[in-house]
Amino acid sequence: MPLSDQDHTAPRYSLVPRTLIFITRDEQILLIKGAPHKRLWANLYNGLGGHVERGEDLRSAARRELAEETGLSADLWLCGTITIDTGESPGIGIFIFRGESIQGEIRESPEGNLEWIPLNQVFSLPLVADLPILLLRVLATLPGSAPFSGLYSYDTEGKLQITWGK
Q: Which of 56, 129, 148, 165 could form a disulfide with 80 if both were Cys (CB 3.0 to 4.6 A apart)?
């Protein structure tokens, strides 16, 4: 299909693509505790990831973000997608990857402290607001299974509303 047929002009709703990565080994998950100076999720635990750059496919972006933030590489698989309706255009498209086969040594990250957390303790930590619900889906998604999908939106008071695809 030629570029002219892509119908990529305004006023179509558009998304900013981001990756979110969860690495597990044995009965642990690698999370990052946001640095105290961060504008978003300071002192809260989250997965790894970031923006997709121009010219990158999603998996390459996830691999780059993982390497930049941790010094690690891993075999990653897409386990889910989330569309975040910000109430405006663009919204956010999050492509969630999971990995288990890890190579490399963890290095410090300016984003925060990297920690291997036992799975049986993760839900007792101060997590980013959606993480307790999201992690249940991520950890249940095995290689080769269909990715889950979700929609995040906000009510009139700004409270997060989550709808899972069927």
A: 148
Domain count, the chain: 1
Give the list of residues 6+ apart from residue 111 with CB closer than 8 angstroms, or none. 32, 34, 35, 38, 69
pLDDT tens digits for 139-164?
999 999 999 999 999 999 989 999 99
Q: Which two tokens stand for residue 12?
A: 């179509």
Residue 1, domain member (yes or no): no
Helix, strand, or coil here: 31? strand
- The whole domain housing 60 covers 15-164
Asked whether the beta carbons of 161 and 82 are under 8 A apart, the reply is no
Sorted by sequence, the CB contacts under 8 Å of residue 16 that are 6+ apart come out as 51, 90, 91, 92, 93
Instruction: Say if residues 22 and 96 touch (Cβ distance below 8 Å).
Output: yes
- Output the six-digit token pair for 87: 């109430």
